[in-house]
Structure formats: structure tokens, C-alpha cells
Amino acid sequence: MGILPTGQVWPPEDGAYDYIETLNSNELAWEFLRRNPDYQRDFAALAPPLPAPEILSSGHVIWHVPEASADGSHWGLWPLVGPKLSALDAPICWRPATGAAILPAIAVRAPVAAEADLSLASLSSVRHIVVRRDGTYCLLANSTDHAIALQVRGDWIVDAPINVTFQLHRLFFAAKAGSWLSKLPGLLSAPPRHICRTPRRKHLSDALIALDGHLSGANYRDLADIIFSRALAATAWSSSSRAMKDTVIRSLDRGRKLARSGYLRLIS
Q: How many domains in the chain?
């Protein structure tokens, strides 16, 4: 049994990858990036670890980013995040150039709390809040289906409920911003997670499993044992058919490509 730089254990325990079926596309992109050896080296060489987060009684996690945090523009990320953090535990802030849904807003303390636009207690899809040194902060709203980051300046939502005014910096983003805004109310109050089993999710999950196995030194047969089952793999490997073997090869190839740069195409 080995432990990878991501903290994943190989061979995996039953259910170790089940959480993948609850992630949105932006979170899946992080799962592939954190398996990129070059990213792991960059993080180790360039990025001072983020200070331990503050965990509120509500369960929200507050991350304060040091002024000297490393520039992650090459990876499309700010700030660089430790590869041992899964998508559920990491404050993943994709940069605008990646095409991620990002809505800038100005916050003002609501005069009447019951009529506020946003109250921390009601933000069921927000777990992570990333705070810059200048006081601006990012509310990361994630569900299984959608991801939107609110970049907020002004009053601090932890102190009191707020009203927000959204800003549109460039006309080019008007159509996208309209789509994001239409999804935002439902996303903010959405149930945190649900299981989503689709062929696409299966392909991505298999690619992650194959990539982890390959990085730990597993061969194709070892990967087939985990992706399918030991019994099915034994039958397939002793037959004349190459169907399962080719599927495993494609899964590993997909995982390598997504970890290198293909993860950027997952971001929406």
C-alpha cells in the first residue's frame, strides 16, 4: 500500500472515490490538477502554506491568504492550494481567464436582517470563504451541478447579513453574467450535494483511479481490478477480447491529459 502526494492511498479502500460523483465540473478540474506532478513541485517550491483556516460554528471555513502568496496564474488558480486537499476541503478560486463563473459585487450591511440579500446562515452551498489582505473576500458557492464565486468588497458578511450590488466590468461578459445570475439564487440555497451518476462522471472517475494507480506503479491489470472488479478483470484478461484492456488504457490516457492541461476545459 502506498500514499500518493495527494494523500490518496493505493490500492484504494472501498468507496474512496465515491465523493467524485458529488462534485461539479470546477471541482473535478481541481481533482485532476492536484495530481499533476509539476503542480505539486510548484506548490512545494513557491507557495507558503495557507495559514490554518478559521472554522466558524456554522461550519463555514475562512481562509486568510498571505500577501506573499505565490502567483498561480500559470495554473489558472489563486491562491495555490495544497494538493493533499480534496475538492471538498480546498478553497478553489479559479481565475477569470479560465472562464469560471465569477460575479464581482459590493456589499453593504442590510438595515433589516430579515430582508437581506445574503445571510451567512442561509448560504447552504457556501462552505469556503477566501479573504485577501485588502479585505475583499470570495464566497465559493458549490453544488453538484453548479459553481459560482462571488468576489465581494465592502461589509463583512460574517458580521451581519448584507445587501449586494453586482458589477459588470466588461460588456463581453454580459451574456455569461446573466446566465450566472439566473442560476445564483437556486445555487445559494441548494442542498449541498447529491450523487450524480452519468457516463461522463464514470469516465472521469475511472480516469482519476487510473491516474492514481499509474502514479503508484500499478499496471493495467491492477487498474482493471479496481475500475471493474477482480473477478471481471480476471475473465477479461484471459480472453481474446481487448475491450476491457483498451478501456483501461483510454482511462489512463484521459487522466494524464486532464492532469496536464485538459482540466482547464472542465471549468465552467
A: 1
d(CA 46, CA 140): 24
Per-residue confidence (pLDDT) for residue 159, from 0 to 100:
96
- Rounded average pLDDT per 10-residue block, the chain, 268 residues: 88 92 97 97 84 94 84 88 95 94 97 95 94 94 96 97 89 79 91 87 96 96 96 95 97 98 96
What whole-number distance in Å separates Cα of residue 211 and Cα of residue 216?
9
Q: Which amino acid is at 66?
A: P
Q: Is residue 242 in a domain?
A: yes
- From CA 52, how far away is CA 181, in angstroms rounded? 32
Residue 26 lies in a domain: yes
Q: What is the DSSP string of 186-226?
A: HHHTS-S------HHHHHHHHHHHHHHHHHTT--HHHHHHH
User: What is the reported pLDDT for 22?
Assistant: 95
In a domain, 97, yes or no: no
Contacts of 152 (CB under 8 A, 6+ apart): 104, 105, 106, 107, 136, 137, 138, 139, 162, 164
Distance CA 187, CA 99 (A): 18
Report the alpha-carbon distance of residue 215 to residue 70 in Å, rounded. Answer: 26
pTM of the model: 0.94
- For 26, the domain range is 1-49+82-89+197-268
Spatial CA neighbour of 247 closest among 230, 233, 263, 231: 233
